């Protein structure tokens, strides 16, 4: 397996603070009362959105489509930008300082794809399922919980994207 972009950059700069971009997708079920969420391989509690870090040369839209396929086996296309969130972590689980700029997109299944193709990759994603949004599902980190709340309140009322600044 080819080493990913972050691992290549970390090999060059060590633990020094770096900025990375990520993209995630929000796929609603047909009733629009549940979102496809993943049980992550790197967290024992809560859920995450399918998505991941951009590779060099990726657009955010390409990244979310690629990550969705890798993690869920579903082919999706981007519908719209939901918002942008930033999160500063002075020491992540690998001991690195990192700021992540995350772009969230609403996605839909590509014509001819259905959820019978749904399958977790078994590595980054241990399980994937449509999780009801009421009551609110527990997300794997507070930043993801805040993002979920914005998706469910702000994006359902408006087509305008939001910006979540660090700590908010």
Summarize the structure in words.
The chain starts with a helix and ends with a strand. The chain has 3 helices and 7 strands, in the order αβββαβββαβ. The strands form 2 sheets. Strands 3-1-5-4-7 form a 5-stranded mixed beta sheet, with helices on both faces. A two-stranded antiparallel sheet has the order 2-6. The radius of gyration is 16 Å and the shape is globular. It has a single domain, classed as Nucleoside Triphosphate Pyrophosphohydrolase (Alpha-Beta Complex). The model has no long low-confidence stretch (mean pLDDT 90). It is of the alpha/beta class.
Short description:
23% of the residues lie in helices and 33% in strands. It has 168 residues and is of the alpha/beta class.
Highlighted features:
single chain; about 170 residues; alpha/beta; Nucleoside Triphosphate Pyrophosphohydrolase; 5-stranded mixed sheet; two-stranded antiparallel sheet; 3 helices; 7 strands; about 25% helix; globular; NUDIX family (YjhB); NUDIX_hydrolase-like_dom_sf; NUDIX_hydrolase_dom
CATH fold-level assignment? Nucleoside Triphosphate Pyrophosphohydrolase
Q: What's the total number of strands?
A: 7
Q: What's the arrangement of strands in the largest beta sheet?
A: 3-1-5-4-7
In sequence order, what are the helices and strands, one letter per element? HEEEHEEEHE
Oligomer: single chain
- CATH class descriptor: Alpha Beta
Main β-sheet description: 5 strands, mixed
Q: Work out the helix count.
A: 3
User: What's the shape?
Assistant: globular
Q: Please state roughly what percent of the residues sit in beta strands, choosing from under 5%, 5-15%, 15-25%, 25-35%, 35-45% or over 45%.
A: 25-35%
Low-confidence stretches: none
The CATH H-level superfamily is Nucleoside Triphosphate Pyrophosphohydrolase
CATH architecture: Alpha-Beta Complex
Total domains: 1
Structural class: alpha/beta
Rounded radius of gyration (Å):
16 Å
Mean pLDDT: 90
